[in-house]
Write a structure and sequence with these properties.
The complex is a heterodimer of chains A (183) and B (52). By secondary structure, chain A is mostly helical. Chain A has six helices and no strands. The model of chain A has no long low-confidence stretch (mean pLDDT 90). Chain B is an all-alpha fold. Chain B has a domain of 28 residues. The radius of gyration of chain B is 15 Å and the shape is elongated. The mean pLDDT of chain B is 89. The chains are: A mainly alpha (183), B mainly alpha (52).
């Protein structure tokens, strides 16, 4: 795997994270389902997962950058497992609407575990880490730069959305209204 | 409020990772990850109603 191809894969990873964040926003805005505290924590884990690819695109592929993503994915898997266990009893309808038959937290757990496997698979290719002078720094193309800014903008939108939802106090366990938009 | 702060913090980490210095980005990443884990442990106090 060349450095350039590794950068492209990292950009694709960022687009995948952006898709997850956009779908979560879609459910929030179209279905009027406000994310619970654990749901927000899983969204945060997805954004933390994006830091590794951003650093790979900016500084070149390094095992330490992939390690950041692995740590974030493990944390996200723990967070989503907790929510799956909260709704595992027979008869429990779960939290929120199911998408493709799975609730958001179940899909999140599958995605975090898939991320761990994919990152481990990418780490198998040593050539992307080879220090051969000129090839060391690969300038990111427009595709990669767009991916970085897309994820940053979606994360910043979550700052606004969460502030509207929770206000300046603690977030409700089962939020139904935006605290700052209440009349 | 802590979730808003976490989203804001990770936005800053991303911008530093993209535009700033690498050691600072790594340090901020560690702080945010620990803050996430601390927030999780704070919210994971409900009893799990498991059957075993």
């Amino acid at each position: 795997m060349t450095r350039a191809f590794a950068i492209t894969l990292n950009a694709l990873g960022l687009y995948a994270i952006a898709l997850v964040l956009a779908v979560a926003f879609g459910a929030q805005l179209l279905l009027h389902e406000l994310p619970c505290p654990l749901c927000l924590l899983q969204r945060i884990a997805f954004t933390v997962l994006a830091v590794g690819p951003i650093m790979n695109i900016r500084w070149g592929s390094r095992p330490s950058h992939y390690a950041l993503s692995l740590l974030a994915a493990v944390a996200g898997a723990v967070f989503s497992t907790r929510q799956v266990l909260l709704h595992i009893m027979p008869g429990d309808a779960g939290y929120g609407t199911a998408l493709f038959g799975y609730h958001y937290y179940t899909l999140a757990l599958i995605t975090f575990v898939a991320s761990i496997v994919l990152i481990a698979a990418i780490l198998l290719f040593d050539r992307q880490f080879a220090e051969d002078g000129a090839a060391q720094a690969v300038a990111p193309d427009a595709f990669a730069i767009s991916a970085v800014w897309l994820v940053i903008v979606l994360t910043a939108l979550n700052v606004v959305s969460t502030l509207l939802e929770c206000g300046f106090g603690a977030c409700a366990d089962n939020p139904l209204v935006y605290e700052l938009l209440k009349h | 409020m802590e979730f808003t702060a976490l989203f804001l913090a990770i936005t800053v980490v991303m911008i530093v990772a993209w535009r700033g210095s690498r050691p600072l980005a790594l340090t901020l990443f560690a702080i945010v990850l620990l803050a996430c884990i601390r927030t999780y442990l704070h919210h994971a106090s409900d009893t799990l109603k498991l059957s075993f």
